[in-house]
Amino acid sequence: MIRLALLLSLLAAPALAHDLRVFARVDGDTVIVETTFSSGRVPTAGEIALTDAEGAPLGTVMLDDDGETAFALPDAVRDTGMRIDVTVSEGHQDYWLLTPGDIARGQEEQ
User: pLDDT tens digits for 47-96?
Assistant: First the structure.
């Protein structure tokens, strides 16, 4: 039983080592997206798909070589929020939900 648990934990470790993490925030009228792997390594290429609160596509932006990107906050999502889906070249994906409260706080801090 202990051997089986040890074997399963060793097999799971490589999958966890490449877990993509996404964080987004609003700074005035700009959305800033940051990505890293759980290991601390930064993805060097990727695409970010933007959708409104109802799932309608708003467009895509590319991830910069430093694992970050910034773009203008779409007017259409100021009161409803948006979903930010990140897919990196290594095939990993994750997302961030930017709520109306997040947007309001980011605009108030300016």
Answer: 999 999 999 999 999 999 899 999 999 999 999 999 999 999 778 999 99
For residue 82, the cross-strand partners are 52, 98
Query: Which CATH architecture describes the domain 19-108?
Result: Sandwich (2.60)
Domain boundaries of the chain, sorted by first residue: 19-108
For 44-48, the CB contacts below 8 A with 24+ separation are: 44/89, 45/88, 45/89, 46/86, 46/87, 46/88, 46/89, 47/86, 47/87, 48/84, 48/85, 48/86
pTM to 2 decimals? 0.80
